[in-house]
Amino acid sequence: MTFGCAAYGRRWRTGFYGSLMLLMLAWGLSPPVMAADGDWGHRLVQDAAIPQRLAPLPGFVQRQVSAQLAAFPTISPQIAQLLGGALAQAYDPSILSTRVSRQLDQSMTDTALRRVDQWYRSSLGRKVVRLEVAASNAALKGAVLDQAGALAERFRGSARAELFQRYDHALKATQRIVDTSIDAQTALATLVPGQDKRQLHQRLTSQRPVLLAEVRRQVYEGYLYTYRDLTIAELRRYIGFLESADTRRYTDIVAKVAHDAVVAPIDGIGRQWEQLKGLQGLL
Question: Above 50 in pLDDT, residue 13?
Answer without folding.
Answer: no
